From TrEMBL:
This is LAMI_0H07756g1_1. Keywords: Repeat. SMART domains: BRCT. It comes from Lachancea mirantina. Residues 1-81, 112-212, 297-389 form the BRCT domain. GO terms for biological process: DNA replication initiation; mitotic DNA replication checkpoint signaling; mitotic G2 DNA damage checkpoint signaling.
Length: 676
C-alpha cells in the first residue's frame, strides 16, 4: 500500500532540534523524504520562522514550493493513524488528479498551506484615491482575514507598550495622528499593495519593498517589484486556475509547477464557479459529475423502507426520524405496521433485552440503530446482518480456570480487540461496554493481563474463503468490512499483536461471533424459562476460534448463567433529578416572616468570676489529679528508692510534697500550650 508522502521531499527551516527530529520521523513514516538542504528536488518547505534565508529565497524564486508548518504535518499524521484518506483520493475535488504525488501536493497546497499573514496584527489607516480605485478599506480587511491575520483594525490605533505579535500599519497617506502614533511605536508603515501581493503570492513578502516613505509617488505596478522574482510563474498558476478544464476534465502529464497551488487563494470561488457554471457545447458529454451523483444516491439510501421506532427516548427518536426521512425512508414512533408501505422494520435500541421486545411478528424484520449507522457508513441499504439484529440480554459469565493468572483474584475475562475500523470499531466497542458487569472487561491495550483477543476476520486475509469461519452463521459480520481497503497502520498493528500472542503470550484469538453467541445462548435459557440455569460455551469452537493454545476442549469451557433484568444494573438509566420549583421558591422568598419579640426584658449575663480565675482553678485541679495519680503509681516503690522526685519540694510545715508553683503568668497562650 502506497504511503501518502511517497515521492515528496520536505525541507525544514528554523525548526527547533527536538521538533525537527519529531517532524522528520513522521515524514519518513508517511513515506516522504527529509532533507535539511533546500535543493531543486524539495517540494515542501516546513516553516518554523519566516525570518530565514530559506523562506526568503523560496518566496522570491520558488512558486512551486508548498509552505506548511509543523502543526499541519502533525494533523496529517494523526489523520493517517486513525485510518483517514489523507490523499483525498475519493474526494470529487481532487479525484481528477491521477498521480498520487501530485494529488497529495495539491491537498497540501489547498488545505494545509501556511497563511501568509498568520499571527499578524494589521492596522489599516487612510486609503486615498492615489490607488486609482484598485482597493479600499473593506477589500483590505477581507484580504487580511483570508491571509490569516490575528487581528485587523481599521477604525482606530491603540498604543501598546509591548507588541507580542508582528504588527504593521497599512496606509497610502504618510501623514495623520494615527500614522505618527505608529511611528512612535516603531511600527513599519506599509503601502496597501503589500497585503494584495502577499495574498496573490501566497506567502509573506518583505516590508522593505513596500515602505510608504520609499514608494510614495511611484506607479502602482512598480511598487514591490523586487519582493518576488517569480511573478510570471504566479500569474501562470492563477491563469490556469481560472481555466475550467478541457476535454475529459483530467489533466494529463501536468508538470509539478502547474499542479502545485492549482487553486491557491481563489480555490473556493473557482470551485463554486465549476459547480454552478453552464455547460458549454465544446465540452465533452462524458464529463463526470461525481458530486451531484453522490448526493442523489445518499438521499435514497432508505427508499421504499418504513421504520417503526420503538423504545427510544424522545430525543433519540427525533434524531432517527430526521436521518431516515432525509435519506428517503419513512418512519413512525407507533408500532403499527398496517399503514406502512414497502419493507417494514421495527427499530429498537441495541441495549434493549430481547425478552422485553414483546411480539414482533407483525413486522418484516427487527433491527437496532446499528443497522442505520451501518447503512449510512457504507452509503447503501445493506441486508440485515448479525451486527444489526437485536442480541442483548443479561447474563453472568464464568470463564475457564486455565486463564486465571497465578496469585491473582481475577473475576472477569479481559478482552482486547484488533483489526476493527470505521463503524465496526464503534459497534464492537459498544457491545463490550454492554458486557461490563457481566464477567467481561474491555482492555484498550494488549498486554500480559489480557485473556483473549477479538479480531476482525474481514481484515485477516490469511484465512481462506473455504474456512468455516467465513461460512457459519456469523460470517455476515465480515462481509462489508472485507470490501474496504485496510489502512497499513491498522494492518501492521494487527500483525504485531498476533506475533505477540504467538511468541510471548499464548491466549485464544476469536471473532466477535463469540460475544454474540454468549447473548444468544443466554437468551435461549430465558426463553425456556430456566432462570439461573447454566449452559456451556467453548472458546476453542471452530465457529469463532482463530487461534487457541493446545489443550482439551474443557480447558476453555465457559459457563453462562442467565440473570434477571434486575441483577445487572450497569445499563439502567440514572434516576431523574428532581427539578426545583423556582416559582414556589420565589413566592416563599417574597413572603415576609414576622419578627419574633421577647415577652420580657432580657437582662445581660453577669459573670461572678473572671476568665483568668476560672483557668487558674482548672489548672490547679489538673495538677492535683496528675500528682495524685503519680503518687498512687509510685507509692509501692517509695521504700526501695531514696532519690527525690524532680519538680517536687517538701512543705516545711507538714512535710508533705506540693507542686512547684509555675513561674509563668496564666494567659490564653499558656493555657493553649499546656492543653487545658
Amino acid at each position: 500500500m502506497q504511503k501518502p508522502f511517497e515521492g515528496i521531499t520536505f525541507c525544514p527551516t528554523a525548526l527547533p532540534e527536538e521538533l525537527s527530529r519529531s517532524v522528520s520521523r513522521k515524514i519518513i513514516k508517511l513515506g516522504g523524504t527529509f532533507s535539511k538542504d533546500l535543493t531543486k528536488f524539495v517540494n515542501v518547505l516546513v516553516v518554523g520562522s519566516v525570518a530565514t534565508n530559506k523562506y526568503r529565497f523560496a518566496v522570491q524564486h520558488r512558486d512551486d514550493l508548498v509552505m506548511v508548518d509543523s502543526d499541519a504535518l502533525d494533523a496529517i499524521y494523526e489523520l493517517w493513524l486513525s485510518g483517514e484518506d489523507v490523499t483525498m483520493e475519493s474526494h470529487s475535488h481532487f479525484a481528477v488528479i491521477s498521480g498520487s504525488k501530485d494529488r497529495m501536493l495539491e491537498v497540501l497546497s489547498e488545505r494545509y498551506r501556511l497563511k501568509p499573514l498568520k499571527n499578524f496584527c494589521v492596522f489599516i489607516g487612510r486609503i486615498t484615491d492615489d490607488c486609482g480605485g484598485r482597493v479600499d478599506v473593506a477589500q483590505l480587511e477581507k484580504a487580511c482575514n483570508r491571509c490569516g491575520v490575528q487581528s485587523c483594525n481599521s477604525r482606530h490605533f491603540v498604543k501598546e507598550p509591548h507588541w507580542d505579535k508582528p504588527t504593521v500599519f497599512v496606509t497610502d497617506y504618510p501623514h495623520g495622528a494615527r500614522v505618527e502614533a505608529a511611528r512612535d511605536q516603531g511600527l513599519p508603515i506599509i503601502h496597501p499593495k503589500w497585503i494584495l501581493d502577499c495574498e496573490r503570492r501566497g506567502a509573506l513578502l518583505e516590508f522593505s519593498f513596500y515602505q510608504i516613505d520609499d514608494v510614495l509617488g511611484e506607479a502602482w505596478e512598480s511598487i514591490g517589484a523586487g519582493a518576488c522574482f517569480c511573478w510570471s510563474d504566479v500569474e501562470q498558476r492563477i491563469d490556469k486556475n481560472a481555466v475550467s478544464g478541457n476535454g475529459d476534465g483530467k489533466p494529463q502529464n501536468l508538470s509539478q509547477r502547474s499542479i502545485l497551488g492549482k487553486y491557491g487563494s481563489h480555490g473556493v470561488k473557482l470551485w463554486n464557479n465549476v459547480l454552478h457554471r453552464e455547460p458549454k457545447a465544446s465540452e465533452s458529454l462524458e464529463t463526470p459529475e461525481p458530486a451531484a451523483k453522490s448526493v442523489a444516491e445518499e438521499d435514497m439510501i432508505f427508499q421504499d423502507m418504513n421504520f417503526c421506532i420503538a423504545y427510544f427516548t424522545e430525543r433519540h427518536s427525533l434524531i432517527l426520524s430526521k436521518i431516515i426521512t432525509r435519506n428517503g425512508g419513512g418512519c413512525t414512533d407507533k408500532t403499527d405496521s398496517t399503514s406502512s408501505t414497502g419493507s417494514t422494520y421495527l427499530l429498537v435500541p441495541s441495549n434493549r433485552p430481547k425478552e422485553a421486545l414483546g411480539d414482533t411478528t407483525a413486522f418484516g424484520q427487527v433491527v437496532t440503530e446499528f443497522y442505520i449507522e451501518r447503512c449510512l457508513h457504507y452509503k447503501t441499504a445493506l441486508p440485515v446482518d448479525s451486527w444489526s439484529e437485536p442480541f442483548f440480554t443479561r447474563f453472568q459469565l464464568n470463564f475457564p480456570h486455565r486463564l486465571v493468572r497465578a496469585g491473582s483474584e481475577q473475576t472477569n475475562l479481559n478482552v482486547a480487540i484488533t483489526g476493527f475500523q470505521g463503524v465496526e470499531l464503534l459497534h464492537i466497542s459498544k457491545i463490550l461496554e454492554y458486557l461490563s458487569g457481566m464477567g467481561i472487561t474491555f482492555c484498550e491495550n494488549l498486554n500480559r493481563q489480557t485473556d483473549t483477543l477479538l479480531i476482525n476476520l474481514g481484515s485477516l486475509s490469511s484465512i481462506p474463503e473455504t474456512h468455516t469461519l467465513r461460512h457459519n452463521k456469523y460470517a455476515s459480520l465480515f462481509v462489508e468490512s472485507q470490501k474496504v481497503k485496510v489502512n497499513q497502520v491498522f494492518r501492521n498493528s494487527m500483525k504485531r499483536k498476533i506475533e505477540f500472542i504467538k511468541q510471548k503470550h499464548n491466549i485464544p484469538v476469536m471473532t466477535p461471533g463469540f460475544l454474540l453467541e454468549l447473548f444468544a445462548r443466554a437468551s435461549k435459557l430465558k426463553e425456556a424459562s430456566v432462570l439461573n440455569s447454566v449452559t456451556n460455551i467453548y472458546m476453542n469452537d471452530i465457529n469463532w476460534s482463530v487461534l487457541c493454545p493446545k489443550g482439551n476442549k474443557d480447558d476453555y469451557k465457559c459457563e453462562i448463567r442467565a440473570t434477571s433484568s434486575m441483577e445487572t444494573s450497569s445499563l439502567e438509566k440514572p434516576a431523574k433529578r428532581k427539578i426545583p420549583d423556582f416559582h414556589a421558591e420565589q413566592q416563599l422568598s417574597n413572603h415576609k416572616i414576622p419578627r419574633l419579640q421577647p415577652e420580657g426584658n432580657i437582662e445581660p449575663v453577669k459573670r461572678s468570676v473572671s476568665w483568668g480565675k476560672m483557668m487558674s482553678e482548672q489548672v490547679c485541679k489538673v495538677n492535683e489529679l496528675q500528682n495524685s495519680a503519680s503518687e498512687s503509681e509510685t507509692e509501692p516503690e517509695d521504700n526501695l528508692h531514696t532519690q527525690v522526685t524532680y519538680g517536687i519540694q517538701k512543705d516545711g510545715n507538714n512535710g508533705k510534697s506540693s507542686p512547684v508553683a509555675s513561674s509563668k503568668r496564666l494567659t490564653r497562650q499558656v493555657i493553649r500550650q499546656i492543653g487545658v
